[in-house]
Design a protein that fits this description.
Helix content: 55-70%
Number of strands: 3
Number of domains: 2
Oligomer: single chain
Strand order of the largest sheet: 1-2-3
Keywords: DNA integration, DNA recombination, DNA-binding
Organism: Pseudoalteromonas aurantia
Structural class: mainly alpha
Number of helices: 13
Family: Belongs to the 'phage' integrase family.
Strand content: under 5%
CATH class of the largest domain: Mainly Alpha
Order of helices and strands: HHHHHHHEEEHHHHHH
Shape: globular
Protein name: Integrase
Largest sheet: 3 strands, antiparallel
CATH architecture of the largest domain: Orthogonal Bundle
Pfam families: Phage_int_SAM_4, Phage_integrase
Distance between the termini: 83 Å
CATH topology of the largest domain: hpI Integrase, Chain A
Length: 295
């Protein structure tokens, strides 16, 4: 782009950021939707308002070759927002890109596997962090932003602030987790954060990438080949509580889900449910064999 074209794009881009804020979008959404506009502009070296439908098709066809569908959906939504609120144009995105409807079942560790993994996590801060994720069913960002003030030792509850969708919630604090958090906090004594970064990043939460790398290393050491990430510990928390008899409504509140349908997906992951299904199928088959024998 020449200087004039660049100034034109910069004006539109600032309008895009303003509109995102005015629409009350979350910081993560603003970042993703802004990145979508920057990415397509860099690809064509042209302002997005000059692109045709054929250009958009070409772009998404190339994006599919190099990025995941989750990224493609974010870019699609970000550009749709840009067209609607900044350019004031309607973009029929369904005619351009429609991600496949895929529903996958996440891998789950047993309680014994989680205990084994925790015991073999050598770095203390990661060990306590993984314990916190699992025993309170937290999202990665929720655990990273825990503060000293969020821990209520009298009521044994933790205030989870600004969760997904901007929702706060209270979750029970297990005794063992409190003990672990206290011991870990004494190693750094940060005035605010429970899990601060190190060195120059001491006033910001621990690095997400470091946490993910640490988990991969521990899983490899433990010879656990399932596809497990820090977020998987939240899935394990939910599944194991259902196996112990917790009702879906209570689990929904613990996890901070907006819909009970989201929570109900964990019922298919429980071993109890699988055993019941196996038992009923065997019973059905046995009854059929008895009927056949009587004929």
């Amino acid at each position: 782009m020449n200087d004039l074209e660049q100034k034109h794009f910069d004006f539109l881009y600032l309008q895009h950021l303003t509109n995102l804020k005015l629409q009350g979008k979350r910081p993560a959404t603003i970042d993703a939707y802004a990145r979508a506009v920057r990415r397509i502009t860099l690809y064509f070296d042209r302002s997005p308002d000059t692109l045709s439908t054929q250009d958009l098709k070409q772009y998404f066809n190339a994006l599919i070759q190099t990025h995941s569908w989750s990224t493609i959906k974010l870019d699609r939504n970000g550009l749709q927002f840009f067209y609607k609120y900044t350019l004031e144009r309607q973009w029929q995105w369904l005619d351009i890109v429609k991600p496949p409807q895929v529903k996958r079942i996440p891998d789950i560790l047993t309680a014994a596997q989680i205990a084994f993994m925790l015991n073999h996590t050598k770095q203390h801060r990661y060990q306590v962090f993984f314990l916190t994720l699992y025993t309170m069913g937290l999202r990665l960002s929720e655990a990273l932003h825990l503060t000293v003030a969020d821990i209520d030792c009298k009521t044994m509850r933790v205030h989870i602030r600004d969760g997904k969708g901007g929702k706060d919630r209270l979750v029970p604090l297990p005794d063992k987790t409190l003990q672990a958090l206290r011991l870990y906090w004494k190693t750094h004594r940060h005035s605010t954060l429970i899990f601060p970064g190190k060195g120059l990043g001491a006033n910001t939460p621990m690095d997400k990438g470091g946490i993910q790398k640490a988990m991969k290393a521990v899983l490899k050491h433990c010879k656990i080949t399932k596809h497990i990430s820090p977020h998987s510990l939240r899935h394990c928390f939910a599944t194991h509580l259902l196996e112990q008899g917790l009702d879906l409504r209570s689990l929904q509140l613990l996890l901070g889900h907006g819909s009970l349908n989201t929570t109900s997906k964990y019922t298919q992951l429980t071993q109890i449910k699988q055993h019941d299904t196996q038992r009923l199928i065997n019973q059905l088959t046995n009854n059929l064999m008895r009927i056949s024998a009587a004929l």
